[in-house]
TrEMBL record:
It comes from the Bacteria. This is SGNH/GDSL hydrolase family protein. Residues 1-21 form the signal peptide. It comes from Roseibium denhamense. Keywords: Signal. The lineage of its organism: Bacteria, Pseudomonadati, Pseudomonadota, Alphaproteobacteria, Hyphomicrobiales.
Length: 422
């Protein structure tokens, strides 16, 4: 059958329209603010960011180019730009991603080397992220850089269009609800009964540690109590043992917290293995910062005390301590993940891993005092102090311990690990 010119032209036009549909849609909705031509009042800072953290920030950062940058996972992301701005620091950009891996931190650092004039770099680096299997070794950064630098790739990308569709659904819920009620299909929905066995396939059941085939270490049923004569030195901590006591708290946690401490805590540490490949990336970041006079600060964010105890439960107390000493060889370490009044107070946390907005403001204030002595900003930060104060001034220090060149200075719910001349 031979197509007539009119039919051929119509078919060609229809094909072109279908091909250009995502381009037009992405150009107007612009889920990640690539062009910012049209403002539809969409909640991009919530929906778009969470759909692809690196893509949003790779597009946003070139418009800001702040010289102070925060890298890390969702705990670092909680240290929002606006909290720094409240203290007079408009030159700080939070480049952290929810669920970030060290691979992503490293690739973001490589991007910053080429695209920023850095003065200060704050890297949030909890021990858990140093296992190469963490989050399956995920790395969303190369794709984000590619799309941010390729307009054609961005505007023809179906993921960007899908995110844009989610933005419209959020902005105009009644329109979409009305559209869903309209059915053009002559076939009605079939309502089948649920199979009775499906409840055994729940997420809770699949995450049950008892299903782990490769488990070697068993989770203790109770708290490990060592004879007082050992002072924890049998754990490989030596004289540092008194700074890492076992944590025994007799209380019932809220269900979410309890599940995270039990199930997630076991998943975090049962098969934990610190990666030397990831460590080499951290060393490279530190070496470049030292060579280019960029101030580098490592930050270990707080978790609730019961979650900290899970590290001890799986025999990793010494590794947890040595990680801080090793990091301090590269740069000062601001450490808030140890048993304190701050980490025992559940009001400071939204779950076992994450602190809330008011604690985030306090943490930003403490980090500001570590990197900056501006009197106005520091005064506001000090006014927020109560249960959290880093040892940045002599009056803040509650105790000090030196062993060789490693020095620990402690304030209120905050420690700084650093190297000193021996």
């Amino acid at each position: 059958m031979k197509l007539t010119p009119k039919l051929y032209t119509a078919a060609l036009t229809l094909t072109a329209c279908l091909a250009l549909a995502p381009v037009a849609f992405n150009g107007v909705v612009d889920a990640y603010n690539h062009n910012q031509f049209i403002d539809l009042g969409l909640d991009k800072t919530e929906i778009s960011v969470k759909a692809h953290y690196p893509l949003y920030k790779m597009i946003e950062y070139p418009r800001i180019k702040a010289p102070t940058v925060v890298l890390g996972d969702s705990r670092a992301r909680a240290l929002q730009d606006k909290y720094w701005q409240e203290l007079g620091r408009n030159d700080v950009y939070n480049f952290a991603y929810g669920g970030a891996t060290v691979f992503e931190i490293y690739d973001t650092f490589q991007y910053l080397k080429e695209n920023a004039d850095l003065e200060t770099l704050i890297v949030s680096l909890p021990l858990r992220s140093m296992d190469a299997r963490f989050k399956g070794g995920m790395n969303r950064v190369p794709e984000a850089i590619s799309l941010a630098n390729d307009p054609f790739g961005y505007y023809t990308n179906w993921f960007v269009a899908k995110t844009g569709w989610a933005l419209l659904q959020d902005r105009y819920p009644k329109v979409f609800e009305a559209a869903e009620k309209l059915s053009l299909s002559p076939i009605s929905q079939a309502k089948a009964g649920e199979l009775s066995g499906l409840e055994t396939l729940s997420v809770d059941a699949l995450l049950d540690p008892a299903l782990c085939d490769e488990c070697i270490l068993q989770t203790p049923n109770g708290t490990l109590i060592l004879p007082a004569v050992y002072h924890g030195r049998g754990l490989g901590l030596g004289h540092w043992a008194r700074y890492w006591p076992d944590i025994a708290i007799d209380r019932d946690l809220p269900s979410l917290f309890a599940k995270q401490v039990g199930t997630n805590g076991a998943a975090d540490w049962r098969r934990f293995k610190q990666s030397e490949d990831l460590w080499a990336m951290v060393e490279e970041i530190a070496a470049w910062c030292d060579e280019h006079d960029v101030e580098l600060i490592f930050f270990i964010p707080p978790t609730i005390s019961e979650m900290q105890q899970r590290i001890n439960d799986f025999g990793l107390a010494a590794a947890n301590h040595k990680f801080r000493g090793r990091l301090s060889n590269l740069a000062p370490v601001v450490d808030m993940d140890f048993d304190t009044g701050f980490t025992r107070d559940l009001k400071n946390f939204t779950d076992a891993y994450h602190f809330g907005s008011n604690p985030a403001r306090k943490i930003v204030g403490e980090l500001l005092q570590v990197i900056d002595s501006d009197k106005a900003g520091v005064k506001t930060a000090m006014d927020r102090r109560a249960d959290l104060a880093c040892p940045v001034r002599p009056d803040d220090i509650t105790q000090t311990h030196n062993e060789g060149t490693l020095q620990l200075i402690e304030g209120t719910s905050c420690r700084i690990w650093r190297q000193i001349d021996g």
